[in-house]
Amino acid sequence: MLPDLSALAVHDTDDTEGIATNKLIQKRGKAAEKKAAKPIIELPAPGEETEPNSRLQLAPRSRFRAIKALFENVNPVGLSMGRDQGFTWRYDTLTPVGVYDVIYKDNHEHVQRYKTRRATMSIAPGSCTEYGTAEECVRTDAVLSDLYTDRGVNGLTTLNDKVNEKYLLHGTGIGGVKGIIYGGFEIERVAAAGFGRAIYLAEDPGKANHYAGASASGNAAEPKNLGWQDFNQILGLDTSQYEAEKLNEGVPQGVNPAETYYMLVSRALVGCADHVANNQMGLGKGTNNVWNKKVYTDYEAAQLQPQYDSIIKEHAHGVRGGFRTGTKFREFLFQRNDSVLPVMLVAYVRRAVGEQVAKARFDYNKFECDSISPLVHLLQAGTDAQKESALRTLSQMSVSDAHFDERRPQDTNLRMMQAGVITPAVALLARGTDAMKRNAAYLLSTMLHWAWKREEAGTRTDVRTPMLRANVIPPAIAWFYRAWTETRNGDKLSPGLYAGWQGLDIVTDSRESASLLILHMVRGKQGRGDGVRVQLVEQGLVPLLLEHVFHVETRSGQAGNMLLTLDAIAEVPEGAGALFKSGGIAILMNHFAAEQYALVGIHQRALILSVLIKMGRVALGYKDARPLVQIADFDLDKKVTDLTNGIQMLTRELYDTARSVNNDARIKEMSNKRPDLAGELLDMIAEISPEYKARVEFRLKADEPQQKGFRAQGERA
Fold first, then answer.
1. Packed helices 541-548 and 473-485: angle between N→C axes, nearest 10 degrees
2. Sign of the C-alpha dihedral computed for residues 72, 210, 400 and 163 taken in this order
3. Cross-strand pairs, 342
4. pTM, whole model, 2 decimals?
């Protein structure tokens, strides 16, 4: 049971810059201010003590301004959508109406234990590098980090950056406010929560607001936020000016906009933090984070590993991904009572100022902390272990933000470019360990993929040029050769990368990293990047691709990536020529005719057709029909008993529409193009000579089902 704390001691500040938002104090004048310098109501401690355990004091104006700035820049999208709020209404703004310092009595037990923990806590050099760097940044850094630089409160001044001391937020009901201010955070009193038993804090007021107003018992069925009028009276707050807003747009009948909620600002010793992806928590007892082989969700106690001081539950599936999603927030979990100390109380109201006004006020990047520069620095000056970890973390950040969102004026990959990540990443791709090379390849490939998605959305960002300036092509080909040639199992080169971070469309081995990097280097609108394609051809990429694209150990996704690469390379004459000289037609046709569709899917067959067509276009341009003759005369008897030649194979296999049914929209799209691709290739073959045209016409007439499919495309032959 929480102590029955019917009131708190409230003092006016003795700072001449004290805030003037408290209407009661505003109206009293100087005489009243002197009177208010004494406690309005003393708070006796339970038991025999008679002196107040703690009191509240109006914070200086500087702290009110800082809190106001933080609250004004809250994403309105995520305010009234949290499942933890129970019944709510669609408000879009949080407005602070009072900010108070929590003043503890001298030698307060909870203050002393926090100071002791703070003084004895340390992060050893070279430790806590699993996520690149031990340094953490949170949203409040930009606006609250200097709150106590001028004068200390409770004997505490500036934050201790060496142990990641931060200001974090905790929303709770009135009973929780009183209990925590009196007795501190006590995990023993915390009910089992979604991510385990822990003290939960947030960096964003929008998240802490979800828990504000909760009943002291934690029972969702109980009315919330009862007693706010009485508590406001104790605090000397008058919020009646907001009652008129119930007539405004967005405030439903029955809602009193003057209703006040409360949030605690605490100093928190984050220390060495473990990061957990959003989908790795809250999934039930015994859920594993496979990446780190740890268990987090016991529902009785979040099982914090001994080497960590806290857990940061990420807002998405990436590490250090920032705070910027609309309805997802990072949460900070602590299991030691001495790691958190409340230092301020914020009273605020929920308002509906208008969706457009609220959105115009919000800026994704206003309080963006720099989580990238420390990692880039490690790429240049860290140990091998730090470089590998930094690359892994940067890759995770990049892939989590790889899909361009036009609503964001800035995103992670753009900030990576601005921080200069490309040059050291290319250097480690060239001279690093196998693990570094793989991680660097993933990082560079996801950045290229991001740029490609931006280009598709109409926003071009040139990532390829700085990579070329850093001479990325030789190490990229060298890594492809090593991953695919020097071992038949690419995973043996280094351990898996992202096994524990589910929800990412990315596999864990070295081969995939090599294939993706090459693919994204050649991707882009037609004609753009032709110089890169020529360089890759000149440095011997085509024979490597043909050797491994259909190898028995090559997974279908990897084969698809290499076919996409060949498809892009075939667009330039040098690429088409290299494919022909390297025996590409025989390799492609043999694979096309494979009987097992499980191994040779529709998507792959369509890509093979596309490559053959591009080779044919180049051949006709050079007045050299040899590639087309090879396709037309390719003998498949040894591979497929019921097929006699390439023409029959094309006309029989390409129009098998029954096999094109697939739930994957992308594959459906490719499947729908198969008749068109086949028709174009057959047109090319028919143009070789009258003999080949007659053969095409004969085969089309010989098989009525295929004839129907061809006619649907326009009777080309």
1. 30
2. positive
3. 266
4. 0.76
Q: Which two tokens stand for residue 376?
A: 């880039």
466 in Cβ contact with 425 (< 8 Å): no
Tokens of 184: 């501190």
CB 150 within 8 A of CB 190: no
Only one residue has tokens 């002197």, namely 34
Residue reference for tokens 């406010």: 177
Would you tell me how many other CB atoms lie within 10 Å of the CB of residue 712? 13
Give the C-alpha separation, 340 to 199, whole Å. 8
pLDDT tens readout for residues 475-500: 999 999 998 887 654 445 554 444 43
Residue 304 has pLDDT above 50, yes or no: yes
Annotation: CATH topology of 372-486+493-545: Leucine-rich Repeat Variant (1.25.10)
Hunting for tokens 């003084």 — which residue is that?
119
In which residue are the tokens 């850094």 written?
141
| Architecture field, domain 9-192+199-273+336-361 | Alpha-Beta Complex (3.90)
Q: What are the tokens at 658? A: 């029954």
pLDDT digits (tens, 9 = 90+) for 573-593: 999 999 999 989 888 888 776
Two tokens, residue 257: 């906009």
Report the C-alpha gap between 387 and 429 in whole angstroms.
11
For 18, what's the count of Cα atoms within 13 Å in the CB-facing half-sphere?
17
Domain boundaries, the chain: 9-192+199-273+336-361, 372-486+493-545, 583-717
pLDDT tens per residue across span 519-542: 999 986 644 667 899 999 999 999
d(CA 408, CA 94): 22
Amino acid letter, residue 709 = G
192 close to 299: Cβ distance less than 8 angstroms: yes
Where is 99: in which H helix or E strand?
Answer: strand 93-104
- The CA angle 198-204-207, to the nearest 5 degrees, is 60
Whole-angstrom Cα distance, residue 495 to residue 490?
A: 10
**In the sheet where 54-58 sits, what is the strand order?**
9-11, 54-58, 93-104, 340-351, 260-269, 165-171, 199-202, 331-334, 310-313, 273-276
